[in-house]
Amino acid sequence: MVTAAMIAQHFKATIKDHPKMKLKEFQRRCASEMHVNVTINYCYRVKKIVKEKMVGNHKEKFGLLWDYAHELRSKMTGSTIKMVVQRVIADSLTHFKRPLIGLDGCFLKCPFKNEFLTAVERDANNQMFPIAWAVVEVERTDSWGLEIAISDILPRVEHKNCVRHVFANWSERKAFLGTTCKSDIVNNNLCEAFNSSIIEARFKSIIRMLEDIRTKMMTRIV
């Protein structure tokens, strides 16, 4: 007798790679690959078993974040790895002397739908250079209060809105170009390109994702 657990084990990788597979398609694959006829409700149960195991795996990885941060600190002397949200203070501004920095966020593809926040600038070769990134539970004032941070901590810094987003979500807010920052950039393609470059990693568990991004960026810089 073929049980739901046996079917779940057989299709574990398939469901992980195609989490939005239709139940009808899953039912067809059960018949063609395992030669068993199952109902739609049974297919739903099998997918639920696999997804619950995936969520459990993601939870376990979050529990290892402190160990991961400790390992990075011991192996990457001079790097900044923080496990808490800290607001930038005036003393730390000397580390951010780049003339133009793009700020953006995107959703992770894991079951928890956390947000991945990035700060990206242009390097001397006019290419994107990621400065910092962080994973937060949700985009809110404590973790990503851009307008508050800019007005309170960086009052003299010119702040531009991406004209593409302004046009797509037209409101009373207008895009403007000042004369302080000598750049022709009017959109946030730097961050958009970075977010697209890590899309595969965003499907993975938290530590695997962070490690993939770290090694990817190190390879790019070198």
From TrEMBL:
Q: Which domain of life is it from?
A: Eukaryota
Which PANTHER family has this protein been placed in? Answer: MUTATOR TRANSPOSASE MUDRA PROTEIN, POLYPROTEIN, PUTATIVE-RELATED
Name of the protein this chain belongs to:
MULE transposase domain-containing protein
